[in-house]
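Why run this: before we spend reagent on co-expression, it is cheaper to look at a predicted model of the complex and decide which construct boundaries make sense. The entries below are exactly what would go into the expression plan.
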Amino acid sequence: MKVVVCVKQIPDPALPGELDPTTNYLKRDDKLILDESDSYGVEMALQLVEAAGGGEVSLVSMAANGEVSGLRTALAMGAEDAVLVSDDALAGSDALGTARVLGAAISRMSPDLVLAGVESSDGYTGTVPEMIAGVLEMPSITFAKKIEVDGTTVKVQRQTEAGYDDVECQTPALVSVTAGVVEPRYPSFKGIMAAKKKPVEELDLAALGVDAAAVGQSGARQETVRVTEAEERQAGEVIEDEGDAHDKIVEFLGELKVV
Amino acid sequence: MSVETILVFGEGDEGSPSGLTLELLAAARGLATNVEVFVAGDGAAMAAELGAHGATKVHTTGSLDGKLMGVHAAAALQAHLETSSPDAVFFGQTPDGRDTAARLAVRIDQPVVTNNVGASIEDGTLVVEEPVFGGTQNVFTAFRNDGPALAMFRPKSFEAEATGGAEAEVVAVDAIDPGPAGSASVTGRHVEERSGPQLDDAEVVVSGGRGLGQPEAFEMVDELAGLLDAASGASRAIVDAGWVPYSKQVGQTGKVVKPNVYVACGISGATQHLVGMKGSKHIIAINKDPEAPIFGVADLGIVGDVHKVIPALIEALKSR
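The model came back. Tokens follow.
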């Protein structure tokens, strides 16, 4: 079984984010890391291949500056190889442009299954996986909390507002994986060393046959007209509990007529 | 300034439109002279309520026979857009809303702008507002495409309001066979047992986070919620850790809540969480770390041990 996992390399979410004042793009100057949301897809892929008794997990990613450090993390977890699409023309791409690029890259890899996180931690549009399935004209199941592959049938427990649905479709298919549903493995020292030698194929738009006008800022066909500072919520009273803080809470709830 | 027609992608179940659908109708009414709804399912059953909220027409595919919605809804919507040309299509930020908008975007090659909380018409163009960096800044985006503006909105961004309009005219839409891409089928539904007030519309929400220390400690969050006639919620950290189901998650990837009172127990206040609750009218936070970001938004902050404060609070409420 061949599984391709879409992974995004993002600025460390622990650091404060910033928009470039000229372009209004998210600044990506520092080292990028593997989006934690995608580590669940990588783990799920590794488990599915193990359960199938063999196969291969490949990665696909898009980054404007040839960045590979996040990919190395996923390779160290156990993925075999990676494809990285890198091209200056990609700056400012929206979800649809991103999906067209990743879709073109994935179609060269002929996977049985494509996995992705439900949404990235920096852009969180939650639409790229389903758009990729649209580009590839594949069936798709989003918000998966459990995946089972039985021959050519993919069976998924799909999270809903009220609980979950059992959903199934035939391979090749795309499934987006909810964060937290598996425990991503820590790369071993051996894995980290091996990852340094694993192949990362770098492609540009020409190699993929994607029209540069369909991606990047021109392809996005939208414009940031302004960015404003949100009104800050004012912090109220903060007190140290000295054994009677509960009285203070009851009093406050009383003022609000909740009790 | 307004545009002519906005189409709202309507969702709901058992014949009732969702709250989010009604919110989108209110938003669309403020921007367009005519508002219509598209339902991938039984729209006829919703026609009266949709009409009462200002929709003139409901375009409906009828039952999808157990197929997963997105691909089928997008195919039918594409066919509908070939004969009708709304200025914009509004989607709710829901699993099916996202699937449908994403598939439609590819089919008609038009961009989708997601995660919005506001909309306006500027120079005849739709401009949408998206909070970024945990809601500290707002990005306003204008559509520059030559097709309908596809915009997706977060729940509770607008107030639903009935206009007392007549039942919406029901227009049947042909289902379109999307081929193998539409093969995903729903074979079973599992609804978690839910009792008491629901997170979405509870007046009071009591949420727990990693600071509870262990899964069993969530029981006291539930007990406190019970005493306050509140719904219980959770941070992503303890949902990811498997302590409580996803349906309780408050935050960017979970539910957006705006109760009268929000009580955060052992929640540090990661951006991901703040986005889902900082619209609450009043916020009470209990956390042992005085530097926790949650105190930056709390009206009443208690620096203390949740294992001492909550049991004492429960006792105090019981003895009243």
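Helices of chain A lie at 36-51, 69-77, 95-107, 128-136, 189-195, 205-208, 216-220, 245-255. Chain A has eight helices and 13 strands. Bring this page to Monday's planning discussion.
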